[in-house]
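Amino acid chain:
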Amino acid sequence: MTRPQSRDLLSSVTSPIGLAAAAMRVSLIVVVLGGGIIGGLAWWTLDREATLRAEISALETRMATEIAAREATIERLGRDRRIARIEVLDRREGLPGEDPTTVLRFIELDDEGRELGRRDMTLPGEIVHVDAWTARFPTETVGTGEDPLRDRTLVLLRRIYTDAMPPRTGVPLDTPGGVPDGYAAGEPARFEQAVWKRFWTLASDPQAARDAGIRVAQGEAVYKPMQPGEIYELRVEALGGMTLVPLGVRADATAPDR
């Protein structure tokens, strides 16, 4: 009985119908397994693609933010502002052996370039000096702009004089320890007033300067020979000191040949 049954089983397997059925089962298994693998790969690929897209988007956003912050820092560090304009009105020759005199108009300006006040003065000599106290702050403080009291160099204009007169006899501008015209009230005025009242302590005591968040405090002067008709603008850099920039000549005057 065993041998006939074995022969029947072998015959059923090796018969064309049995082989076709076995092949179908194998094919079905392969299809199911293959579909599962392909579906898993597709899901993994789509999930990975979505993750990469999100990472790239976050990176682009972070880069854009960093670039904007860097550009803002560069703009703040390179920013300067106008604080005064000097117009040379006239030059009067003196007697033999005497210096000529220069007639100036000094116009103080606010941060927007609006006129705060003007005064005319006649000074002996031709080379005009503008003397000031300046307080400068660390690069990172100016660059970030997070502290509005320390985001630019502070300047207190003190006097104008020339090469033909001692500085102590110059024409006074702002009053040391006082509040400049551009700051009539508020916290900036109080802060500046405190700086000017302790200026020489801050200039000579490194620890006091550090405690006040000041990089350097010092007196400085800019000067140039000036001719009738010329116009100059006094500017101060956010991180640095003062500059005296020529603007050309007045429309109603022509500077003489030098």
